Amino acid sequence: MKVKAEFLKVLQKVDLKRPLMIPPAFLKHLEEESSEVVILEGPSGGLWNIKLNRIYDGMYLEHGWETFLTDHSLSAGDLLVFSYKGHLHFTVTIFDRRACWREDSFTVKPSQESSNTHEVKRRGRPPETLERAKHGENRKALIDINPPSQPSETHQTRGLPKQKQPDQLPSSKGKRVRVSKPIEVNQIARRPAKEAVAEFTSRLPFFVIELQTHNVNRPFYVNVPSWFSRSYLPKKETKIVLQDAKENSWIVNHRKFTSRDTLYGGWAKFCQENNLKKGDYCVFELVGELQLRVYIFPVH
């Protein structure tokens, strides 16, 4: 969904104890909405249902707002950016008093109280949302591996081929190499992850990350190589689907900065459900628009 409008709020002490008033000048964007529920989407991608109270002097976020504050450990001085997507659906970006991202907000989950409160039927077309695929058990992926005598360098593929050719495929350096049939990752599990990932090749663009502490612990994020993001990712904030070989899917947030692109939000859940650890290698392969298949090479 495109952002239709935004407003900012620097929290004061009184805001932590009372309903939040939506700026009067912003109400023109909400005139056609009749629902009594506002959806706030936090930096983690979690959703909070908030009771909207309409009175003579404006609109207020009431029941559920205090839960949003508590879940995100918000305090006076924090800056919130409310980006309106339509149909009373806002995404909220949180900055601290230094005007820096509150990185701990990327992993916050709605409390049970917030998830179950004020579920009022909404009139009209509901906000567009991405539906998560069911998460299956953690399984090893299938990967294409070159024979050991034909190693190829990683993360250099630049374009999507117009035609798939099963035997001869362009390598990451533009040379043509023969790709063997997919084999189970556990067949190469006895080899070091660095050695195994070096043999990965694909007809599709991909990049490789050796996981560091910040990737698998708070604040849980991954920086995408600039060459990959310039070529294949949108120049705006969006959602991206991570998928394993069994087509289990996770939704993550993608944000673009001047010097880098970052995956966060649902990345924490992906890490936890796949038991990722520092030193593991992940191959991110572009298999569709805003869709990355992830192959995991665990460290031994």
UniProtKB/TrEMBL annotation:
According to its UniProt record, where is this protein mainly located?
nucleus
In this chain, composition skew of type Basic and acidic residues spans 125-142
Q: Which GO terms describe its cellular component?
A: nucleus
Polar residues compositional bias: what residue ranges?
108-117
Q: What SUPFAM superfamilies does the record point to?
A: DNA-binding pseudobarrel domain
Which GO molecular function terms does the record list? DNA binding
Concerning CDD domains, the annotation shows: B3_DNA
Pfam families hit by this protein: B3
Q: Where is this region: Disordered?
A: 108-178
Question: So which domain of life are we looking at?
Answer: Eukaryota
Positions of the TF-B3 domain? 5-98, 207-300
Keywords recorded for this protein, A-Z? DNA-binding, Nucleus, Transcription, Transcription regulation
State its location(s).
Answer: Nucleus
Which InterPro entries does this chain map to?
B3_DNA-bd, DNA-bd_pseudobarrel_sf, REM16-like
The name on file for this protein is B3 domain-containing protein Os01g0723500-like
Question: What high-level taxonomic lineage is stated for the organism?
Answer: Eukaryota, Viridiplantae, Streptophyta, Embryophyta, Tracheophyta
- Whichever gene encodes this chain, its name is LOC104610773
